[in-house]
Amino acid sequence: MQPAQIPADVRIGHIHLKVADIPRAVAFYRDLLGFDLLFEMDDVAFLSAGGYHHHIGLNTWTSPGGTPPGRSNTGLYHFALNYPTSLDLSIAVRRLVENDWPIDGASDHYTHIAVYTHDPDRNGIELAVDADPARWASIKDITAEDFPKFLQPLDVAALLAESEGR
Prior knowledge:
Elements: E1 15-18, H1 22-32, E2 36-40, E3 44-48, E4 56-59, E5 79-82, H2 86-98, E6 105-108, E7 112-118, E8 124-130, E9 152-153, H3 156-161
Parallel strand pairs: 1-4, 5-8
Antiparallel strand pairs: 2-3, 3-4, 6-7, 6-9, 7-8
């Protein structure tokens, strides 16, 4: 059997998450990450950036008051929010830091830089900005020896310096 081929211009449209508490989750995605709240009811909410029909759906249909899955459970590891510029990423990370929201890690992945956090339900979130696409070509041919260059520490202080005073 031949492997399936997906069109190159396919993109991920939205993510829909089970959460324990709609108002708590909305507050995180709206107030800390900056998404626009489009619609909210007792058990569902939809948020967007830039007028898209929705980037994030939240529901408590089967999870009201629920607890996050354990670290060894299968499921979502994280989803990524790609910012247009490093300044935009810096502003987003600064907002988290200034609101005492935990940063779980930060890496320079060569193809992009990433800061990791989580929402109130412990869903992992990668806040990222892509590097110049000319660097991406090398990822197809990486070897075990090359892999460490994709896992370099990120200087978060330098990233935050980009948005100093904003």
